[in-house]
UniProtKB/TrEMBL annotation:
Record keywords, A-Z: Hydrolase, Magnesium, Manganese, Metal-binding, NAD
Domain of life: Bacteria
Family label: Belongs to the Nudix hydrolase family. NudC subfamily.
MF terms in GO: metal ion binding; NADH pyrophosphatase activity
Matches recorded under InterPro entries: NAD-cap_RNA_hydrolase_NudC, NADH_PPase-like_N, NudC-like_C, NUDIX_hydrolase-like_dom_sf, NUDIX_hydrolase_CS, NUDIX_hydrolase_dom
Enzymatic reactions: a 5'-end NAD(+)-phospho-ribonucleoside in mRNA + H2O = a 5'-end phospho-adenosine-phospho-ribonucleoside in mRNA + beta-nicotinamide D-ribonucleotide + 2 H(+)
Record EC number: 3.6.1.22
One Gene Ontology term from the biological process aspect of the record: NADP+ catabolic process
Pfam families xrefs: NUDIX, NUDIX-like
Statement: the UniProt record of this protein carries the keyword NAD: yes
Name recorded for this polypeptide: NAD(+) diphosphatase
Cellular component aspect of the GO annotation: cytosol
Domain Nudix hydrolase: 160-285
């Protein structure tokens, strides 16, 4: 039996939070004069402390930047160019009116809107926790139009942090996939397995270690599928598929997994048709919603038969 048993599948579509149609225009981040010149025509994306943004009729609300201040606001983040106009993320305490976050509204946003919100939520979350240098403990000040911070004492520069995590669809090379439920999740709510990459560890090594720790299985045929930013608050999910033996015993050694089972392709297909975690469907198996790369991985696996 080869390492790549059964049909090889790829992701059917780009993960929803990986979509972006806005150029980041990194060359402008340090160009103070260009940013000031673009401010009168720029737009602002307001983001509250919970990562919520203004959404109306399924579209992101972008307000004139000049309404907030006469020039770029300290603490705002330059996100790039959209239709030739500068776009800034502006942190606010509260938002009024119709608001939403990526978990609930992200799937309905356009590619351009989704890319803006993903970047804005992640970077502004980093700023809220990076007010003091990790090196010398001194206060830090935003620079490079929000894409780094400088220690006021030493000039040491720090950048937004992203924590890599693997997420892996484990299947048997045939008609079964392994799904698991964390102890804090309600009954019937299952997903694929995931975990953070440790220091000095390759992605493939992390896949093998996490699967072994969480459910006690050895995997083979580890294969990359795709990735997705996950700004809750600062991760990137790196998707893989791997093969394991469904006859091998399951063991939950790290205490994170409360239940894991092998499901057939037909069972997963029925769960996809029933909706997702948020639908409230009375189904024997509930799967993640479309905003998660896990959903796309499962849909792609199901369609590969």
């Amino acid at each position: 039996m080869s390492d790549f048993d059964g049909p090889v599948f790829e992701l059917n579509q780009t993960p929803l939070l990986s979509r972006s149609a806005v150029g980041r225009a990194e060359e402008l981040r340090s160009d103070t004069e260009a940013l000031r010149a673009g401010w009168p025509d720029a737009v602002q994306l307001r983001v509250d402390r919970r990562g919520q943004v203004e959404i109306e009729d399924g579209a992101l609300v972008l307000r004139p930047a000049i309404d907030a201040a006469a020039e770029p606001i300290p603490g705002a983040v330059f996100l790039g160019l959209r239709d030739g106009r500068h776009v800034w993320a502006v942190p606010v305490t509260e938002l009024d009116g119709s608001v939403g976050d990526l978990r609930l509204a992200g799937a309905a946003l356009s590619d351009a809107d989704a890319g803006l919100v993903t970047g804005a939520v992640a970077v502004l979350a980093w700023h809220r926790s990076a007010g003091f240098s990790a090196v010398d403990g001194s206060p830090t000040t935003p620079t490079t139009s929000g894409w780094s911070r400088i220690s006021e004492a030493t000039g040491h520069e720090e950048f937004p942090r992203t924590d890599p995590a693997i997420i892996c669809l484990v299947h048997d090379g045939g008609e079964q996939v392994l799904l698991a439920r964390q102890g804090v999740w309600p009954e019937r709510r299952f997903s694929v397995l995931a975990g953070f990459v440790e220091a000095g560890e390759s992605l493939e090594t992390c896949v093998a270690r996490e699967i072994k720790e969480e459910v006690g299985l050895d995997v083979r045929g580890i294969r990359y599928l795709g990735s997705q930013p996950w700004p809750f608050p600062r991760s990137v999910m790196i998707g893989f598929a791997a093969v394991a033996d469904p006859a091998a015993p399951l063991a939950f050694s790290d205490g994170e997994i409360a239940e894991a089972r092998w499901f057939t392709r037909d069972e997963v297909r029925s769960a996809i048709d029933a909706g997702d975690w948020m639908s409230g469907a009375d189904a024997p198996l509930l799967l993640p919603g479309p905003i998660s790369i896990a959903r796309g991985m499962l849909e792609s696996w199901v369609s590969a038969s």
